[in-house]
Design brief:
This protein has about 425 residues and is α+β, with helices and mostly antiparallel strands. The protein folds into four domains: about 80 residues, 3-Layer(aba) Sandwich (Rossmann fold); about 70 residues, Dna Ligase, domain 1, CATH 3.30.1490.20; about 120 residues, D-amino Acid Aminotransferase, Chain A, domain 1, CATH 3.30.470; about 100 residues, Phosphoribosylglycinamide synthetase, C-terminal domain (Glycinamide Ribonucleotide Synthetase, Chain A, domain 4). Helices cover about 30% and strands about 25% of the residues. The strands form seven sheets. Strands 11, 14, 17, 18, 21 and 22 form a six-stranded antiparallel sheet that branches. A four-stranded antiparallel sheet has the order 5-8-6-7, with helices on both faces. A hairpin with a 2-residue loop joins strand 15 and strand 16. Helix 7 runs antiparallel to helix 8. The longest helix has 21 residues. The radius of gyration is 21 Å and the shape is globular.
Amino acid sequence: MVGNGGREHTLLWKLKADAPSAEFFATQPNGGMASLAEGVEISPGDTEALAGWAASRSIDLTVVGPEAPLAAGITDRFRAKGLPVFGPSAAAARIESSKSYAKELMRDAGVPTADFRVFRDLSAAQDYVREQGAPIVVKASGLAAGKGAIVCEREEDALQAVKEMLEDLRFGEAGREVVVEECMRGEELSVFALTDGREVLTLLPSQDHKRVGEGDTGPNTGGMGAYAPVSLVNPELMREVEERVLFSTLQALEADGSAFQGLLYAGLMLTPEGPKVVEFNCRFGDPETQAILPLLTSSLLEPMATIAEGGSVAGMEARWHSGGAVTTVLASDGYPGGYEKGKAIHLPSSLAEDPELFVFHAGTRTSGGELVTSGGRVLAVTGLGGSLGDASRKSLVGADTVDFEGKYFRTDIGWREFARDEAGRP
């Protein structure tokens, strides 16, 4: 397992459940992963060293969690050594690592998305903002850890955003090119598809909560929680998403010489005109993975290994628990801005005793035998239940029992779903 965040802990947990007798390794594992896998003290970003290590150990399958190693070509290096690896090539990973590439690919392929323009010049970008007015969205084209998209309700905020990216280099190299696009309204939906490049095995759609504050207020984060399933989703909508978004994009990537094998993540906006793509990612989403995988009763390892070995997922189906899952992210005070690390974490034993409660580690590590914080997003507490309401209550009770200085979490994950449910009651 390449990576050591909440997504990787969840993937490792699921794969180990699928193959309990297998031997697992993980790069610099966090405090929750350490008990599931033997640590490999190579950075997830050291792609050459990891490929050499995997070759020396004859590793049967490597799963790449984060986007940065994928964008850096880790899959290409592994494939060059004949090693099975789950994740797209660097060329295919441009669907996430370059928002301008993704937008232009979608435009040419007729994939529904927001109108946009790409800029490297500040004055031209600001002229376009003035011409379009607000609300408007400004995005760093490169990888910005989920924080590079700024929804600007006022024109002056958008002018400032493009200045901070293009002139002040707020996001470093990731912001040397910006995408300025129309602000779409509606509810967001995350759709994950395991793909061999042509066929897809679509997983249960979920909804992420990116804003730091209750009621989706405040700055964007990497994600403060997620839930699944989403009641707005029906078979007709999923057919539209697969045909107009997933298959069209995969065909365009293949035609571009960048066939995509791995996990294609479509972040969608459900607009009055139908689903439109907000963004693509080239890997599992975080924290949606923490909500989806505890509901998956069929094997994840089987389709992953099939794709990594060059096979087809045609005919494969995913099976799910009934009911729902709600994931609450516990963050450090100050996140997504500055925050302190090294705060002691107390996890009561009762958390491990509940079969419908899961604690996935993200920003944790062990220090002197003690579990401490090491990141902005520290833990994700997932509750399962016969209903989303039951799952939410379980998740929040679990979140309450965890203790570390500066702990912060939202108490309203799934609020739109609950509002819909309330509105639909007689």
